[in-house]
Amino acid sequence: MQTTTTEPRAVSVVILKGGVGKSTTSMNLARQLAEHGETLYADLDPNGHATNGLGFGDAYQGEINLGDVILEGDATPQDLIRSTEHGFDLLPSSDTLEDVEKDLAGAMQGSARIKSKIVDPLLGTEYEYVVFDCPAYPGMLNNNALVATGNVVIPIEPGSSAIGGYKRTMERLIEPAREYIDVDVLAVVPNKLSDRIDQQTEDRELLENLNKATYEVNPGQPLQEAVPNFARITADEFDAIDAGEMTPPKPGIRHRSALSRSLQHNQPLQDYDPESDQIAYYEELAEIVAAGGIER
Fold first, then answer.
1. Alpha helices in the chain (DSSP H)
2. pLDDT tens digit string along 19-62?
């Protein structure tokens, strides 16, 4: 395992849209962060896709559950945390999390429970990194994740509603939270790309929207500055591609059958297919989180 001198960091992987690769992104991010330091992967999604996908369905329906930790139960994170074979530990989701969501709304300091019960006791002591896989809807669990981490990674996929999902996340989740706390969007990550970008495809449209956008992702920072290097294409490069002066690259995390099969085999991509050409992109994403931002 490599070691770094960067400070401990927690991060939320979130977007208010389902089916865009959020669990895949967060799990593979946790796997690559485990190469940098002790990492905890916390599944806050009531659907428990990541928990079940890693083979911990028994924990998802366990007698002691995440609600017992977050609310006023006697359980601690250590009562739930499971070791995996992939270098990181798992704090599993629970089939009771939807009820926990409702209970948090009426709880004292309901938006700070995950920070006080999970992140504060563990980050910087037992773990260098904590990665939260968040629900695809606004609510108290997402609010808790933002308060607990202050750092966000937003996955996004091609399609007619792609930018809409990003804007909805900013307007309904991140901007309201910024009225009370600092929230830093570390990266906006295009994934599930499969088409060429020298033609007018949905992949091209998404990458142009991300790389040419003028609206801000962080105060004083345009959206394009939050696009990782593996998905960054300048306006001049687009022009060169269209003029046939540049071989069209394949930016972003690309669709690979190994990515979907890896979950079926209860493994991150690094362990299922260590030769995959996409691992380098998840490693770059891990380096962004470890450093607290993108370095050009």
1. 22-33, 49-53, 57-60, 66-70, 77-80, 97-105, 113-114, 120-122, 140-149, 162-169, 175-177, 202-212, 235-242, 257-264, 269-272, 279-291
2. 899 999 999 999 999 999 999 999 999 999 999 999 999 998 88
| 255-289 per-position pLDDT tens digit | 999 998 998 898 999 999 999 999 999 999 999 99
Q: Specify the pTM.
A: 0.95
In this prediction, residue 6 carries a pLDDT of 76
Structure tokens at 183: 């929230």
Confidence of residue 215 (pLDDT cuts 50, 70, 90): confident
CA dihedral 116→117→118→123, nearest 10 degrees, is 50
186, 220 in Cβ contact below 8 A?
no
Q: Helix or strand or coil: residue 78?
A: helix
Name residues whose C-beta falls within 8 Å of residue 68's C-beta, 6 or more positions apart in sequence.
74, 75, 79
| C-alpha–C-alpha distance, residues 218 and 59, integer Å | 37
Q: Which of these, 210, 217, 224, 215, lies nearest to 184 by C-alpha position?
A: 217
